[in-house]
Amino acid sequence: MSMRSRMTYGLAVVALTATTVLTSATPGAATPATTTPRAGYAASAVVGCPTGALCLFDQTGYVGTRLTVASAVPGGTCVSLVDHGFAGRARSAFNTHASAAALFANDDCVGGPYQVPGNGGVTDLGSFRAASVWVP
After folding, report:
1. How far does CA 100 lie from the centroid of its chain?
2. Which CATH number is 27-135 given?
3. Which residues, at least 6 apart from 116, have a Cβ–Cβ distance to it below 8 Å?
C-alpha cells in the first residue's frame, strides 16, 4: 500500500470514527411518545418514585413492577438492566431528576439514546426495549 493510500485510508477511518462518536453522544436521538403523565394513570406510582431517580415500570402508564435507578456519583453513571434482571422489561419510565436520563438498547450505554426528560416521563416506550440506562 502506497503512502498516499495509507494516508487516505487513515483519514477515512478517523472521519468515520468521529461521525460515530458524535452521533452516539448526541442526546435525544429518539423522541419520547409522551412526555407527561396522561389523565387516568395512577398518580401514586409516579409519586412513589424518589426524588433524583429514574423509575422504570414493566407496564405502560407507570404501573406494575418498578425498578428505581439513581446515580451514587456526581455526573451520572451507566446502569446495566441486564445485571438487575430488568433488560427488555421497561414499558414506561418516570424521571424525578432535574436532568434528562437516557435508555439504551445495549448493555453499555452506547448508541442512540431514548431520552427521558428531567422531571417528566414516557408513559409508553412502544417497541423500544432498554438493556441499560444513563442516570444523572
Report:
1. 9
2. 2.60.20.10
3. 32, 54, 93, 94, 95, 100, 101, 102, 103, 122
Q: How far apart are CA 23 and CA 9, in angstroms?
A: 21
User: For residue 135, is pLDDT > 50?
Assistant: yes
Judge whether residue 123 has pLDDT over 70: yes
Rg (CA), the chain: 18
61, 123 in Cβ contact below 8 A?
Answer: yes
Would you state the pLDDT for residue 47?
Answer: 59
Between CA 123 and CA 2 the distance in angstroms is: 57
- What ranges make up the beta strands (E) of the chain? 54-59, 63-69, 77-80, 92-95, 101-104, 114-116, 120-122, 132-135
Rounded to 5°, the CA angle 131-82-17 comes to: 50
For the stretch 26-50, pLDDT in tens is 222 222 334 444 444 444 345 589 9
Is 22 in a helix, a strand, or coil?
helix
How do the domains of the chain map onto residue ranges? Answer: 27-135
